[in-house]
Amino acid sequence: MKKLVDSVLNQVLEAQMADHLGADYHERLSDRTGYRNGYRE
């Protein structure tokens, strides 16, 4: 049951972050509104 809850929660958080940034993970768009943790120029 814990794995199911973890999986669903991670999917929800990933969708919220993609919505907030305006781009999915590894998606490079000129109109994205921010970046995830990590390197950027």
Description:
With 41 residues, this protein is an all-alpha fold. Helix content is 49%, strand content 0%. The longest helix has 20 residues, at 2-21. The protein starts with a helix and ends in a 20-residue tail after the last helix. The model has no long low-confidence stretch (mean pLDDT 82).
Q: List the secondary-structure elements in sequence, H or E.
A: H
Radius of gyration using CA atoms only: 13 Å
In whole angstroms, the N-to-C terminal distance is 41 Å
Q: Biggest β-sheet, characterized? A: none
Q: How many strand units?
A: 0
Secondary structure class reads mainly alpha
Question: What is the helix content?
Answer: 40-55%
Strand content: under 5%
Coarse morphology: elongated
| Average pLDDT number | 82
Q: Figure out the total of helices.
A: 1
Poorly predicted runs of 5 or more residues: none
Task: Give a quick summary of the entry.
With 41 residues, this protein is mostly helical. It has 1 helix and no strands.
SSE arrangement:
Layout: H1 2-21
Relevant terms:
41 residues, mainly alpha, 49% helix
